[in-house]
Sequence to fold (457 residues):
Amino acid sequence: MPPKPVNSELKNFWKLGNEELNTQYFDITRGGDLMIKEGNYQYNVVELIKKYGSPLEIVVPSIIESRLKNIIDYFNAYIKLLDYKGKFFYHYPMKVNQNKEYVLPLISEGANLETSSANELWIIKRLWEQEKFNSKIRVLCNGPKTQKYLSLIDELDRKGVIISPVIEEERELEFFKKYPGEVGIRVDLSVKVKSHWDKRFNHFGFPEEELLKIGKIRNLAILHYHISSQIESLDGITAPIKRAMYIYKKLKEKNPQLDTINIGGGAGVPYEKRKMYTTKSLINKVVKTFKSEADKLGIKHPNIICEWGRFAVAPAQVSIFKVISQKEIEGSTQAKAWYMLDGSFINDLKDTWAIKQKWHVTPANNLNDKKLKHVWLSGSSCDSDDIYTNGGHILMPKLEEGYDQYVAVFDTGAYQDSLASHHCLLSSPAKIILHNGAVTVARKRESPEEVGKLFGW
Fold:
């Protein structure tokens, strides 16, 4: 007789197994442990913790590959379905996560790359010299250009890399007047949308009026903008496209070789597990908007570039912590106790502290426990900001004497590694990779000696 499936109500309660919420990769074992699915392979998270310890970061490259494949396939499908005449190119912005276990799976599924610094471009140089990718891969270079960055762009262009620097300001415009390859230019669109990053003033790119006064730009091929991050609605995605198409038409009058618009990043991840737009509806809307605006303006359909990095990689990592103690809270109407963890939000999940990021948090074991408690979580650094309250409370099983309780934080694959620190000289979590049914250690748990060396000891 086949084993009885886990109650679907239990998965719904913890918002697992839902494609619209990016949790289709997670399930619950009959014993109440969190399970990660990789195709037909499956991994019991509690067994991984017992073997590799906590805190622990778990990365699943197949999730990255699957999400990128969906992006590329949907764009190509809607381009064909809507009779759109331009091409689509995906560029992964390396600042989102520069770790090899993220970058290489993306390249394997057809991603081009985007860099924001000389050191990120150094990784491109290393991959190129090791012949890790073919000669057709395209590289965009954004961000302020230091002399080291400019020199490396020039070097890689001479070596045959298809590398397109994106001009951010006057100094760069002057430098790239003699550049033999294609260039892009960034515009600071006069459009604001509802999102995480909605600053009134933006120091990146040229204001619209200033850009249109420049005139002829040598080898200009790409108009680029980045409107925001974690855009909450489809209108927030399409409004900038409409404005960019107008600027594109005006710019193309003096730069007929211009043929591409890079819409940057911004596609949102449902961190709080409330429904947003789907990949399918997002891409359908993007291609339709490009087509309708181009036809309305009477211009050739431009090629489309997107840099949806967070969208591609955030769901590929889950961070696991152990509850090491609890402290009752007097006088709170939201939470009954602090659960102290063996890791640190301010170190390991920096956005919790930096931008008040809300996460999807569940138990990693005892998911079938009916004795739940409203709690707040506390990191193990000596800092009053090293906490997570979810703006209210987190549901966790009541602690039982003699039994360990583990906590899972989802969607931690974007930005958290590159922003991580060592406040209170805490060690970074160990990191493991789940691939083809096997487990590989990507980063061992740091010893006190290794952390001390970072600070000169």
In short: The domain at 8-61+316-454 is CATH 2.40.37.10 (Lyase, Ornithine Decarboxylase; Chain A, domain 1). The chain has two domains: 8-61+316-454, 62-313. The first helix runs from residue 8 to 13. The chain is about 30% helix and 25% strand.
